[in-house]
Amino acid sequence: MPEISRLPLSPNWGGHTAFPLLGVTIPDYAANTHGKVRDFVVAVSEATQNECREFRHVTFFVDVTTETRPFAVSNFQVPESTGEFCKRGGRFGPHSSNESFASIFYRKMVFIAYFNAGVRAVDVRDPYTPREVAFYIPATTAKTAERCVASQVGAPAGATNGTRSCKVAIQTNNVEVDDRGLVYLADRANTGLHIVKLTGAAARIVGGN
User: Fold this and answer.
1) Is residue 149 included in any domain, yes or no?
2) What angle do CA 85, 86, 90 make, to 5 degrees?
3) Does residue 48 form part of some domain?
């Protein structure tokens, strides 16, 4: 199969999940004679190190309307300061998006699994300006596994000579949705499966109450 195009990324980031958002009508382009409908790919990088011992990872919105000329037009990220996530233990940052084309959410909302920041609901009706409209961070339980780092940066994370620091932290790893409007979160740290749904203003975006 021939390659149509590619988007070189910075060595600081990678692509864990690529989710197409095709045929998006841009509200602010209504008066324009061309380009009102655009195609995008949501490209999710993956946080890989505990307690932010790496570059910050983000989610990119890539315009692929011209397939041979993809380019990033915006990004989404959770400010660390909103929850002091680098101190909570485990990974902080994106891992994956939902991959279902469930019509209740498609072209309206994308969900990003964000490790210790839970799941983030992102309004994507205008992918040039994505915005968070809801989030849910599950509580840890007695079954939630520890996540460890070396007390000194550069030492191996599994050190057993007193240089290891461990914390119990939620690690929302994967997220999926269905046509009923339910959102499913799978935890990487053995906490289990969480099933949630939108409420309030976020629910009204997708036609709920």
Assistant:
1) yes
2) 90
3) yes
Alpha-carbon gap, residue 109 to 49, rounded angstroms: 27
Domain housing 93: 17-200
User: Residue with structure tokens 């996530």?
Assistant: 85
| 177, containing H or E segment | strand 172-177
- Predicted local confidence at residue 208, as pLDDT: 63
> Is 58 a residue whose pLDDT tops 70?
yes
143/11 Cα distance (integer angstroms) = 35
Number of domains in the chain: 1
Distance, in Å, from the CA atom of 104 to the CA atom of 178, rounded to the nearest integer, reads 8
DSSP state of 27: G
User: In terms of C-beta density within 10 A (0-12 exposed, 13-18 middle, 19 or more buried), how is residue 53 classed?
Assistant: middle
Are 194 and 139 contacting, i.e. CB atoms less than 8 angstroms apart? no
Strands 17-25 and 182-187, how do they pair? unpaired
- Could you tell me what percentage of the chain is helix, strand and coil, using 3-state DSSP and rounding each to the nearest 5? 5, 40, 55
* Nearest-angstrom CA–CA distance, 209 and 23: 26
- Residue 164 — very low, low, confident or very high, per pLDDT cuts 50/70/90? confident
On whether residue 9 sits in a domain, the answer given is no
